[in-house]
Amino acid sequence: MSTFTDSTLLLVSNIGKTYRVFDTPMQRLKDLLGLDARFHEQVALIDASFRVEHGETVAIVGANGSGKSTLLQMICGTLTPSKGTVECRGRIAALLELGAGFNPEFTGMENVFLNASINGLSHNATEAVLPQILAFADIGEYINQPVKTYSSGMFVRLAFSVAIHVEPDLLIIDEALAVGDEAFQRKCFARLRDLQSRGVSILFVSHSAESVISLCDRAILLDHGSLLRDGDPKQIVGLYQKLLYARPEQRDEIRTSIMADVDSCDLNNETDSSIEPISSDEMFSHESEHDDPFNCPDLIPVDPDYYVEGLEARSIDYFENGASIDMPMLLDESGTRVNILHKGCTYIYRYRVRFNEDAFDVSFGTLLKRIDGVSLGGASTSPPKVLSNLHIIENSVRWVDFKFKVRLNEGAYFLNAGVLGSTKNHDGFLARKLDALMFKVLPQDNECSTSEVDFGFSTNIHIVD
Fold first, then answer.
1. N or C: which end of the chain has fewer CB within 10 A?
2. Mean pLDDT by 10 residues, the chain (465 residues)
3. Quick one: fold of 276-441?
4. Domain ranges across the chain
5. What CA–CA distance (Å, rounded) separates 143 from 110?
6. Model's pTM, two decimal places?
């Protein structure tokens, strides 16, 4: 990773950042004068190395304080590394924290020329693209007002418009799009797709899992200044969420397994698809008799024509916080296990939950996703933000059923499983399994529905004389 290749645009080599933190202003003054001063070091980033190729989109994910913004600032040159090097063979345009590269006393128009010049565009070149900048920003007469009077949304409109029109080789976005309204965010993502098609490289920081998965070729996971993993966006997002929702005492073990590149997907050893939970009375009756199939799930028959043994998801289990999830399965209407589904037919998604602590306000859920991790729909046993008032005692077992009619077109899909509630020591996810189960939907002859979900559109073509 120490040298450029013909396809490399950005090379980051063993970069780190350490700050001196002084106890008092006097100690800081002593340090400036070259005298002995008392201080301690705060490490913001530790030996990060990676490369970005031409035309590649790379996400950087991590919790607040993980070093994401520090890394981007060093790549942009607004912050000097304490060690390591950053090399970029091309023009960088960046949207960092709100206000970077803009003078609040200047008007929007003046800031367009200021920011474009910072990004390497001449005055004449900026004038040539000015109509496109103003049209995309769409802030009207506010362009002639000082930017200190702008809302955060207006500011992002202008900053993003300038950044995409200076013809960058590398566009860096640090969560800036999160403050725009929905229509402008959609407009921005469409433009990002256009930039990707023209070979522009993008470094993208976002807390939106779906944006990372759908937009990026790779993702990098940072935590407490360390680069833990660089790889497939879907896997990285899963590991990030697992780390984010773990108990504090569990995080060191997760970090160690991720950095060691072991199978950190199982540390416990661990739409319009109309998914609906079975009624509570029926669902929670699934307990305890020896001749009950729920006690002998291995005895549930398998349909040899519609069950493929090798069709298994590589699931990611979060750490247990009072419960555990296992035995995910799909059943047809006769109660037979399947994983090859027919469009238009009804199925039951079932999983088992074991409670090792008393749990209160318990609800169960599922989420249906495409192969790239983008969510299509889901369901819960209780409405969002409404307490279920369901109490489940320690050492209980529940089987959860979600009944749904397949309105999906041909393809591979994944189902999550999750349990929310409260225990004596935890409030939130008691257990969560990402990609608990994989299934495929068979193709249909003469299918006119496009994309993943069939909304039941009907068409008419009217002849006008």
1. C
2. 80 92 87 84 91 95 90 90 92 78 89 88 92 91 91 87 91 76 79 92 88 90 93 89 80 85 46 48 41 61 85 82 94 93 94 95 94 88 83 94 93 93 91 92 83 86 88
3. Coagulation Factor XIII; Chain A, domain 1 (2.70.50)
4. 8-90+169-265, 276-441
5. 9
6. 0.73
